[in-house]
Design a protein that fits this description.
407 residues, alpha/beta, 9-stranded mixed sheet, two-stranded antiparallel sheet, 14 helices
Length: 407
Amino acid sequence: MSVNVHNPDQYMSALRTIIAGGRKRIGLLIGAGAPAGMAKQDGTRPLIPAVAGLTDHVLAAIQPKYEKQIGALKNELDHHDIETILSRVRTLGKVVGKGSLHDLDAKGFNDLGQAICDEIGKVVSVRLPAGRSAYTDLVNWVSGTSRDHPVEIFTTNYDLLIEEAFERARSPYFDGFIGGREPFFDPVSVATNDLPKRWARLWKIHGSLGWSANEYGEVVRLGKDATTHLVFPEHLKYDQTQKAPYSALLDRLKAFLMTSDTLLLTIGFSFADAHISSRISEGLAANPSASVFAFQFKSLAEEGPGCAIAGMRSNFSLYASDGAMINGVGAPWKLPLEMPSKDWAPIRASYWGKSDVSKPEHFLLGNIEDFASFFASSRTAQSFPSAAKPADDDGGATHAPQVIAAE
C-alpha cells in the first residue's frame, strides 16, 4: 500500500530559484507570529508577544479600572482577542450615545478604547536588536536584487520593526502616506505602480503605531507614539472604511492576488483573520496563475484555518513543521535517502533540522528567523538534482508540486 509523502528538498530548491532572481512578482504577508518568534537584545523571547500574549498583557493592565466591563464584553463576544474586544468597545462608544451600558457612557467607552490602545502601544513600541535580525535579513533580500517588480509587504502588525530595518539599510519603501508635517494617506498611489521598482511597498492592514486622526477625522501619520488608530478593519462601519486607509490596503491585497503570475509568501500568519483569509481564498479562486506559500510554525494538524484553504485551492501550499499540504494533499515530510547533490547538505540545513533539542528534526521555515535566513542566503551558490529540472524564475513548477509515493 502506498503512502503519500512530500519531499522538502524538491520544493525548497524550486523556491530558492524563484526568490534568488528578480523576475517574479513577490509579496510577503507577515503576521503576529513573526515578532513573537524573534529574540530580544538579551536573547530572551518573544520580542513582541503574539495576539494571545498581547491580549493577556493588555487586559491585566486595565483590569483594576475596567474589571466589570471586561467581564461583560467577554460574555457578549465569541472571540476574546484584544482586537475583537477593541472593535466592540469602539462600536459601543458610537451607539450608546447619552445612555449607559456596563456602567459606561459613550465617553467612557471611548476612554476604555484609548486605554487599550495605550497599553498595546507600550508592548509593541520596541526596537530591533542591534546587529542582525530576521527583519534585517528580509530587507537585505528585498533590496539586494534588481527586480522587475517591487516586493509588496502586507502586515497585520502594529509595530515599526520592519520600517526600522528598511531605514537601517537605507532602503526606500512606500507605505501609502505622503507629506512632511502630517503625512496623509494617498489611495491613488496605493492603487497604482507609479513609484520606482526599487521602492518596496509596505501595507499595514491593521493600522500602525504613529497613525492618528487630524481635525477632519482623516488618518495621518504623526509619529511613533500615536496609538489612536490601532483597529480591526472588519468591524469598522462602512463610512469609516471609505475614509480610512484600511479598505484601500485590503483592496491592494486583492489586486496583488489578481495580477498575473504572482507569489504571496506568508509567515507568522495563522489565517484565523477571516477578513484577510477570505480575500486570499477568493483571489486564488479567481486567478489560477497566482500562488500562496504559507509557512507555518505548528504541526499540520494544528494549522486548521490554513489547511482549510489549502484543501480548497490547489494554488495554495502550506508548509508546516511535520508535513505539508500541496495540491490539496496533506502528507508528512520525508527526506530522500540521498542528497540531491554533493554540496546540498548546507542548503538542506537551512530549512531542515532541530530548532529545539527536545524535538525531532523537522521543517524549520515556519520560524521567522530561519525563514529570513533562508531568503537572505538564497543568492549563494547551489546545485540542483541532475534528474529534475529546476523551476525557472517564472515559477512554473510552483503550481504543480509533486507528491511522492512511498511503499
